[in-house]
Amino acid sequence: MALIALHPRHLALNQPLPFRIFDAKGLMLLPGGMKVELESRLQALRSMPLYVDEVEAAPWLRLVHETAESLVLRNATLQDISIARMRSGASSSSSGGSGSGGPGRDALSGAHNPDRSGPISNFDVGLGERWEGLMRQINGALQDATPQGDWVLRLHEALSRLIALADRKPNELLFLLIQHAGHDVRQYSAHHAALCATVCAQVAHTLRWSADDRETLTMAAMTMNVAMTGLQDTLARQKDPLSPEQRQRVDNHGLRSAQLLAESGVGDPRWIKIVRLHHDASLLAAPLASLDPAQRMARLLNVVDRFTAKISRRSGRPPMSPLAAARAACVGPDGKPDEYGSALLRTLGMYPPGSYVQLVGGEVAVVMARGERANEPRVAVLVGSSGLPLPEPVLRETSSAVRKVVAAVPVGDIRVRLNHTALLDLL
């Protein structure tokens, strides 16, 4: 993907963006169609280098060329304002005009291709630290969610970095997220959102959904519980049953989260609809062919949300093994998974990274990566066949009969402290 620079003067309040906007590392900041409705958010965007996909911006550039002579600034849209400002500032661009009739680079000056340059190539450095920083950023944005804040912009940036990390290190990121889900209740809401978004992105890729659909779905996953972030963190630590007030807030959180998104400037109706419907049980019973795109995405998010919640620790209950969680969340009344449940199982495997398994001979291992088959993950043995912990974990393939996985192991049965950095270094 070749990116070219966007001058910040082409951004305006309350106008839908005609294309996605990226930062200098090629990570998406804002999706196409979103409105920037807060002055503080607009100024934050204007303070950083901005880029757009050259191919994606081509129709807008053609519009610039074809309509420049007839524009008026009064009551103009973002595109119209951009064009009018481009005319007044065309001489400031060193790339020249449109020449013999093709779109010029007056509106978009400079060129940048993050696929060929810069810090993004150093993705292996400090994976654990990078992940922890992202989680702090995601948690901070969700905790600060108010209609007047810039939390949506901050969350967009964090999600872009998270998905970029997932694209380059899919097993490693799942390992870290599932390990946290099974062992730790701190910042539960943010970690659950990140895990759901990561799994949704990978399952949507398995289903061969478009990039736009995957992007909308992952943002919905990140924000589906935003209206009860603090409450969700509290409930993860709470051993007592929910109070009536807590139950009401939980029951209404889909609608309240959707309302908060709309009030915070989100202009994508599908995103808002997915969040509003992500707990709608009627979608699970309806034929997939009868659902519109937003309803189908809400149904997939429902499956992923329930699965990831079941493999997550709460103070009041231990986590399920992923195999048991899949049976509970992905299998329908007929005892078979539907299309989305099957896609989740194909994507994660029977034993996803971060979970625990027992091998033939009694060895206990943590799953590090998915294998070519759902029941043949790549693992790091923690406990030998003698029942004693190994001095150092040993990487194993489980495709052979003498190393195959025979059972999932509950998190509560693990008595070995894991060094995540050392384990990830084995891959």
What's this entry about, in short?
This protein has 427 residues and is of the alpha+beta class. The protein has 17 helices and ten strands.
Please characterize this protein's 3D structure.
The chain is of the alpha+beta class. The protein has three domains: 114 residues, no CATH class; 226 residues, Hypothetical protein af1432 (Orthogonal Bundle), CATH 1.10.3210.10; 70 residues, no CATH class. 47% of the residues lie in helices and 11% in strands. The strands form three sheets. A five-stranded antiparallel beta sheet has the order 9-8-7-6-10. A hairpin with a 5-residue loop joins strand 8 and strand 9. Helix 2 crosses helix 3, helix 7 crosses helix 14 and helix 11 packs antiparallel against helix 12. The chain is globular and about 70 Å long. The two termini are 28 Å apart.
Mind summarizing the main beta sheet?
5 strands, antiparallel
Main sheet: which strands, in order across? 9-8-7-6-10
Query: How many structural domains?
Result: 3
Q: What would CATH call the architecture of the largest domain?
A: Orthogonal Bundle
Number of strands: 10
Any idea what the CATH superfamily of the largest domain is called?
A: Hypothetical protein af1432
- What is the helix fraction of residues, given as a range? 40-55%
- The termini sit apart by 28 Å
Output mean pLDDT. Answer: 82
The CATH class label of the largest domain is Mainly Alpha
Give the topology string: H per helix, E per strand: EEEHEHHEHHHHHHHHHHHHHEEEEEH
How many helical elements? 17
Which value, in Å, is the CA radius of gyration?
Answer: 24 Å
Protein name: Phosphohydrolase
Region (Disordered): 88-122
